[in-house]
Design goal:
By secondary structure, this protein is mainly beta. 10% of the residues lie in helices and 60% in strands. The protein has 2 helices and 10 strands; from the N terminus they run H-H-E-E-E-E-E-E-E-E-E-E. The longest helix has 8 residues.
Length: 154
């Protein structure tokens, strides 16, 4: 069950990239998690990993100071990564996608990913910055607050 909940963590990167890059998600790949400490409380429905957190699956990696997974009925409901900053990298076949912010949240039920606190997402020379960036997985809609974009025409 814990493997399943950690798998959802990679929706922070693989679903965004799958839609944009047309690459298959690496959701069937093994997951490696490293942290200075970790706690899984089945009764409370929560898993918390702290200190130098690094989660890798296939070509996706997330680094955070703290990763919290909230469970409901033994399934991930919300995943939150915090850090100074939280960073992610997807190194697919095309140009790598990197990003960072002070907080990354994945609402599993609503399928919404939010990157907040100096959010930055880069691919090659293209970059999107915002105080808060939100991506709706089902609708493939990106919204932002105080958004700044830099991109080169093709």
């Amino acid at each position: 069950m814990l493997k399943t909940t950690l798998l959802i963590t990679f929706l922070l990167t693989t679903h965004i990239v799958t839609a944009a890059d047309k690459q298959p998600a690496s959701s069937d790949m093994p997951i490696a998690l490293e942290a200075d400490e970790g706690t899984y409380d089945q009764q409370a429905g929560m898993a918390v990993y702290k200190g130098n957190v690094k989660v890798t699956q296939g070509v996706s990696t997330i680094w955070a100071d703290k990763l919290t997974i909230v469970l409901k009925d033994n399934a991930a409901e919300r995943i939150e990564a915090t850090g100074n900053p939280v960073k992610f990298k997807y190194a697919g076949d095309k140009q790598p996608i990197t990003g960072q912010g002070k907080q990354a949240i994945y609402d599993v039920t609503d399928k919404i990913i939010t990157l907040a606190g100096g959010a930055v997402v880069k691919q090659g020379t293209d970059m999107v910055k915002g105080d808060r960036l939100t991506y709706h997985l089902d609708k493939e809609i990106i919204r932002g607050k105080r958004v700044r974009m830099t991109f080169l025409p093709k």
